[in-house]
Amino acid sequence: MDLSNLKPAKGATKSRKRIGRGQGSGYGGHTATKGNKGQKSRSGGKIPVWFEGGQMPLQRRIPKYGFKNPFRTEYHAVNVSKLAEMAAAGSIDASAEITPEVLRAKGLIGKKELVKVLGGGDVDVALNVKAHAFSKTAIAKIEKAGGSAEVL
Hints:
Layout: H1 58-61, E1 75-79, H2 80-89, E2 97-98, H3 100-105, E3 114-118, E4 128-131, E5 133-134, H4 136-144, E6 148-151
């Protein structure tokens, strides 16, 4: 015995159903195992998962609410602790200005994102930060550490 004459155990494999190949196939020459009549017996008779049998669909039963402001300005949030951490690690020069271009180069923000500096965490390094927006706590923490925060 070797690999060339190995076979699965008797009864372990079954031949596939050849549907719609005539009466003699045993799988419906007439209805092809789909039963009699109805949408599911027709060709292309697929019913989507969300279809509720003609009942008013869920997404139309639930009331509309809320408002989406088309003129909203979205900022990418950066915590002061992250800036201090990067300055301590040496990936950002603490004495130089930290601008959105510097953050973009370090991969902290995306290509066309506005930056808002938030006051999460602690700052022990004097940072000169320029960003599009600041939270009050961020300004307080940066200035307490001896740095400056300038809005672009």
